[in-house]
Design goal:
By secondary structure, the chain is mostly helical. It has 14 helices and 2 strands. Helix 7 runs antiparallel to helix 8.
Length: 244
């Protein structure tokens, strides 16, 4: 219900933002209990709800909140595992192309695991933490995200993407987007930008890439070996770039 242009849930949104301040779920001073208290009070004001009604109301709150990880941290303790999993759909949380929202999405996995480990596993939370350094948004985001996945698997820091379906889906998406980005640069003859974007791929040639990594790339990025082996003479392109 809306009163004078304001929704009754506006207070909840403001309260959790003020409470969280600049803290995120991975920080040591994150206010878990205070955030839960805001949600418990919100639900208490709604009266008696079925589990389905509670899931629906909290899912709407999460969907309408800008920082999804803060909202998940406030709500996950009162949600079913199925509702939490639905709220963490990558397509709904990470913008195409720029991957804006990826960092908050990864933080949300950490929050959900902390609040409801029956919904999100410790392995998923570890993957989320490991990928955070590679989650900066922008035009290079698909390359950066995929590089993170490859580095994690190569270092055997974590194994088996198949055991974490949401991260497997994210890795496949990064493969497709990175391949499309390189092809787009190729069509536009932007060779310097293409070479910079693909600069980490040569590390996968030879014995470095594991069968799992090769399988992922072969399935979604058929030309990756061509780009990895590419050694262009960029001097003419640089001269043209400077002249332009």
């Amino acid at each position: 219900m809306v009163y004078f242009g304001k929704r009754k849930s506006d207070g909840w949104h403001k309260q959790i933002d003020v409470t969280a301040a600049t803290e995120r779920p991975t920080s040591g001073n994150f206010p878990w209990d205070q955030l839960r208290a805001h949600t418990d009070l919100y639900l208490k004001k709604k009266g008696k709800l079925t589990s389905a009604e509670r899931d629906h109301r909290l899912s709407v709150l999460i969907h309408s909140h800008d920082t999804k990880d803060i909202a998940i941290a406030a709500c996950a303790h009162a949600m079913s595992p199925q509702a939490i999993r639905a709220a963490l759909n990558v397509a709904l949380n990470v913008a195409p192309g720029t991957y804006y929202g990826l960092y908050s999405y990864l933080q949300a996995f950490v929050a959900a695991n902390h609040c409801n480990p029956t919904a999100i596993t410790e392995l998923e939370a570890k993957w989320a933490r490991a990928l955070m350094p590679y989650s900066t948004p922008g035009v290079a985001a698909p390359s950066r995200c995929l590089e993170g996945v490859v580095r994690i698997l190569t270092a055997r820091q974590l194994t088996s993407l198949e055991m974490v379906p949401d991260f497997h889906a994210l890795a496949r998406r990064a493969c497709k987007d990175f391949a499309a980005q390189l092809e787009g640069l190729k069509v536009k003859s932007q060779w310097i930008a293409a070479y910079a974007a693909a600069s980490w791929l040569p590390n996968l040639l030879g014995t470095t890439a594991s069968p799992r990594i090769e399988g992922l790339l072969d399935a979604e990025f058929l030309s990756w070996r061509v780009w990895a082996a590419w050694r262009p003479n960029l001097n003419p392109a640089k001269r043209l770039y400077v002249r332009d």
